Amino acid sequence: MHKVIIPVGPQHPALKEPENFMITLSGEKILKFSARLGYNHRGIEKACEERTYIQDVYLTERICGICSHSHSTCFVQAVEEIAALEVPKRALYIRTLVAELERVHSHLLWLGVAGHEVGFDTLLMYTWRDREVVMDILAMLTGNRVNYGINTIGGVRRDITPEQSKEVAKATNTLEERTKYYIQIATKETTLIKRLSGVGVLSHDDAIRLGAVGPTARASSVDRDVRRDDPYAAYGELKFKVITDNHNDVYGRTLVRMGELMESYSMIRQLLKNMPEGPIAVKAPRKIPAGEAVSRYEAPRGEDVHYVKSNGSEKPERVKVRAPTLANIQTVAKMLEDRQLADLPIVIAAIDPCFSCTDRLTVIKEAGVRKNKVMSWEDLHDYSIGWYRERGIDFAGLNKKLTRMLK
Amino acid sequence: MIRPGKMLKAVLQSLFKKPNTLNYPAEKSPMPDKFRGKLLFHPGKCIGCKLCMRDCPANAINIVKVGDRNFEAQIDLGKCIYCGQCVDSCLKKALEMTKEFELASLERGKLKVVYHADNKESPAK
Fold first, then answer.
1. Same domain as A386, residue A250
2. Is A164's Cβ below 8 Å from some Cβ in B?
3. Contact check, Cβ <8 Å, B36/A144
4. Hey, are the CB atoms on B11 and A122 less than 8 Å from each other?
5. Are residues A181 and A142 in the same domain?
6. pLDDT tens across A218-268, in order?
7. Considering the domain boundaries, does residue A365 fall inside one?
8. Residue A403: which domain range?
9. Strands (E) located in A82-221
10. Complex ipTM above 0.90?
């Protein structure tokens, strides 16, 4: 059958962020899927090197709009390791509490998005309504709904009062009740089960080979979770299960995320109950001693890795960020092999992608050639046509066909 | 027997419920106590150490000496990321976060606010 290459993105109604996918089709069947990232590159790593450590905490917080606490905690942990700061226990507990509340809000958001992608908008409306409960709690604890700004080097910036922990406990009860309802929906609603089962299959071996992380890996029964394997913050003192599933498909990923929500509620209760008394921060020096550290963090989307190298000055020498989506994007190509085009939106959405977090890499073509070139509009036009021609899409032929048809 | 429409009950129930949304400009939800809104500057307390300028991640604040022990603050609301680090850094509590959040403006000039030494606020020229 004749092969067709469809470019999806950088701007496309099915995508929420700018990225480009080239999909080779034979009829409705996907033969090849290739992703091209980099449309959202903001140069955050370089910007980190230009700023002081305390300014970087707020900058890393803005890497991602959903897991903002994940990135700032990951960065702060690395800096604290280099400076050998002993963070007070209460600060670690508050960090973990915000981290788990963030996971709740991220997973509820994902459930809504997944519902929307399969045309179940009722689920979207209801989950996002309930998500407001946890957003309000986060705003009450930290002062903002999204960029919490709770972390600082050496601890946290805001304490929790007993009244606030009562409010959190109350909200957790409400959310748990609602999540139980969604679990019931997810496991009993036939339309949802039929749409998600057998879609985006990623076998256990493929998940390991492609280096999948987070719920994407755990739904392929890869028992891997940084919170348990390499405990940070207060996770070492908490009792929780790592949820895995052997469905290997989008349905399994839904069940894993639902299960993780329930685990998060139990963790929030433990944190509130065992919250130690004491100071919430230690004073951090402005100049961090020379050294390097790698910090791992289980973000709602998977393992997040930050590498920080310091040279004894006020500014870091190098900051490297590996967002979870970068590890997971490779799996999408495998999941979509020989599948239907209609499965594309939900399979991409199932890894819970966040492309603006991922755009770290700069590829410099013609390395060594230090020559700047000014491109005119015509040059750019020719370049774009050439770029697509290399990938098998010929607009020249299409244009001719179009003019012929119009005649 | 498995049949679709498991959410039907909740959907029908919501017909008789109050809408979950707020009628925003008419009614506003209260801001939390720790909310980080527009910055407020108390010129009398400022000693001109400029720690806030040094720590600001967005270069949004500028402290200018206008006389003997008199300081003015120029704040760019368009640049400010409302993180509140300047409030934490200030040794004399001369900065404060208010609950004001409706700061959008059609003119750029209005986004630059100057707190004069005599405790008055005006848009920058």
1. no
2. no
3. yes
4. yes
5. yes
6. 999 999 999 999 999 899 999 999 999 998 999 999 999 999 999 999 999
7. no
8. 377-407
9. 151-152, 155-156
10. no
